Amino acid sequence: MTTKLVRPSSQPAVSAAVAGALIPQLDRCALLLDIDGTLLDMAPTPREVWVPPELEQTLTKLLVRTSGALALVSGRSINDIDLIFAPMRLPAVGGHGAEMRLSGDGEAVATHAPPLDPDLKSRLAAIARISPGILLEDKGYSLALHYRLAPHTEKAIYESVAAIRAEHPEAPLEVLPGKSVCEIKHAGFTKATGVVELMKHAPFHGRRPVFIGDDVTDETVFAIMPDLDGVAFSVGRDSELTAGRFDEPRDVRDWLAGLLGPTA
């Protein structure tokens, strides 16, 4: 597979062109796909995302065509991923790299990522009481404060998190700003560390990773793609670390379907 992939947003026919280049090579690729804002359209709350039936069909076929080397890479826990895509179960890196599953019928395993301190977690969770409309999401290894329904609270949320971090400078906390969300986790693991671990194991080992992501947390994976002889695409925004970009999740879904060819 050539590294000279054209930016999907710059040429109308590029999706078909890239698909045509990849179809004979799917047996050597590992498809790594972010979920929210990449495969699925963003929703007012995390529970309201919707999986189009045609996407389920596409992913199922691609899983076969890649001999199982397709994985979802998300900040969500693997349990949450399974609830969204049920009854389909896919290989996954969940919790920003905190857990991993190598096959759909396998068990999720922790990657030795440290959890948040319970007392700090409780204090951070209390920030959700600043205003109605702030949604608290406990992801197990991280805590997310969603403010899509209360955008006026963004400044107050980040100031509150900063104040708690200042009171506990010894706590290795990492703040992950996202699309209308402030997420806090223990430092030391990322989506990138999860992907590196995933690529050590069959059926991913020895394949060339193709990663697609949309948010700040995906930048860590974009950055390691050259080390893995991989290629990355962003969604909805440009990145110097990617080979190109898609405008929106619908374009990603269409591109993935195109990889299967006209007779799929």
Automatic annotation (TrEMBL):
Pathway: Glycan biosynthesis; trehalose biosynthesis. It comes from the Bacteria. Keywords: Hydrolase, Magnesium, Metal-binding. Its EC number is 3.1.3.12. Pfam families: Trehalose_PPase (PF02358). GO terms for molecular function: metal ion binding; trehalose-phosphatase activity. Its cofactor is Mg(2+). GO terms for biological process: trehalose biosynthetic process. Removes the phosphate from trehalose 6-phosphate to produce free trehalose. This is Trehalose 6-phosphate phosphatase. It comes from Rhodopseudomonas pentothenatexigens.
